[in-house]
TrEMBL record:
This is Universal stress protein. The keyword Cytoplasm applies. It comes from the Bacteria. Residues 6-141, 178-293 form the UspA domain. The keyword Cytoplasm applies. It comes from Alloalcanivorax venustensis ISO4.
Length: 302
C-alpha cells in the first residue's frame, strides 16, 4: 500500500475519549505501520482570556501542549507515536500542512453522531480529508469494533478489471486481514423505472430488456468479481433497491463494522467526488466508513 503510515486527527476536547485514536492505534499495531497523531489545540476561549498579551498567549499555549502531550501518552500507552500538536487559527492550513508532511496511507477521523441512529455528521474537516487527502480516509463512530470485525466492500463489479472496485476490495481485504476480520463484497442493483424500459425499447441492450435479465446480468458480474478476488460466492451479495438506503440498511442488519466505498473523479475542476448517491450513503451509514481514492488520484495538497 502506498503511503507513510496512519495519521489520526483528534477531537479538540482534551477529555474526549478519542475513538479515532483508539481505532487508528489498533490498525497501526495490527499492520505494523507508524502512527502519527495530530491535534489543533487552538482555542477561541484561550485567545479571549489572554487578550493581546503575547507573553501570556505563549505561556498558555505551552501549557495546553503539555496537557495534550500527557493525554496522548495516556491513550497510546507504550506504543510509539509521532505527535503533531499545533495551534493555528487557520484549521484548513494546519490540516493541509500535516497531511502534506505525513503523506499517510490512511487518515482516521471521528465524525460527530446523531443520537441513537449513529449517522455520520460530517464536518468541514471530514470533507476536506475525503476530497483532498492522499490515501484512504476512515471516518469512525464511537462504538467499538467487534472482536472479529466485519468489512463490507461496496462494489460495481461490471466495471473494468484494475479499476476503482479492485482498489476498494483490495483495501477492505488488506485491513480485514490485518484485523483478522470477515470480508464481504456487496453490490446494490437499482432498477431503472419500468416506464423507461418500455419507452426505450430496442435502444436498450439485450440484457436490460427486463428486470430479471438485469438481475441475472449483475449477478453473473458479481460472481466473476468474487472469483477474481478469491472471495467465496456466499461472501458476495447482490441487493436491490435505492443504493444509499439499501446498503446502509444492509450494513445495519448484518452488523458491519466498516463499510468500504470508492470515490469517483468527476473533472479537473471538481478534483474528485462524490455525487448525491455517495454523499447520501456516507451520511446514512450507521457503521464506520472507509473512503478509497481512485488509482490516478493526485492530491492538490501535495
Amino acid at each position: 500500500m502506498d503511503g507513510n503510515g496512519i495519521l489520526v486527527f483528534l477531537d479538540r476536547d482534551l477529555k474526549a475519549p478519542q475513538p479515532a485514536l483508539t481505532k487508528g492505534l489498533k490498525l497501526a499495531r495490527a499492520a505494523g505501520l507508524p502512527l502519527t497523531v495530530m491535534v489543533n489545540s487552538d482555542s477561541a476561549a484561550m485567545r479571549r482570556a489572554v487578550g493581546l498579551d503575547e507573553e501570556r498567549r505563549q505561556a498558555a499555549e505551552k501549557q495546553i501542549r503539555k496537557a495534550w502531550d500527557k493525554r496522548i501518552d495516556a491513550l497510546c500507552g507504550d506504543h510509539q507515536v509521532d505527535k503533531r500538536i499545533v495551534s493555528s487559527r487557520d484549521s484548513e492550513q494546519a490540516l493541509r500542512d500535516t497531511v502534506r508532511d505525513c503523506r499517510p496511507v490512511l487518515s482516521v477521523v471521528h465524525t460527530s453522531e446523531e443520537g441513537r441512529l449513529r449517522r455520520h455528521l460530517f464536518t468541514p474537516r471530514d470533507w476536506l480529508l475525503i476530497r483532498h487527502a492522499p490515501g484512504a480516509v476512515l471516518c469512525v463512530h464511537s462504538d467499538p469494533w467487534n472482536d472479529t470485525p466485519r468489512f463490507t466492500a461496496a462494489v460495481e463489479p461490471e466495471q473494468y478489471e484494475g479499476g476503482l472496485d479492485d482498489r476498494v476490495i483490495g483495501a477492505a481485504g488488506y485491513w480485514c486481514e490485518q484485523m483478522h476480520g470477515e470480508l464481504e463484497a456487496v453490490h446494490v442493483l437499482e432498477h431503472p423505472d419500468e416506464t423507461l424500459l418500455l419507452v426505450a425499447g430496442e435502444a436498450l441492450p439485450e440484457y436490460a430488456a427486463s428486470a430479471a435479465n438485469i438481475r441475472d446480468y449483475h449477478q453473473k458480474a458479481l460472481d466473476a468479481f468474487a472469483e477474481r478476488h478469491a472471495l467465496p460466492k456466499d461472501r458476495a451479495t447482490l441487493l436491490e433497491g435505492p443504493v444509499s438506503r439499501t446498503l446502509a440498511g444492509y450494513c445495519e442488519e448484518q452488523g458491519s463494522d466498516c463499510l468500504v466505498v470508492g470515490t469517483v473523479r468527476r473533472n479537473p475542476v471538481e478534483r474528485l467526488l462524490l455525487g448525491a448517491t455517495a454523499e447520501g450513503l456516507l451520511t446514512r451509514a450507521g457503521c464506520d466508513v472507509m473512503v478509497v481514492k481512485p488509482d490516478d488520484f493526485e492530491s492538490d495538497w501535495l
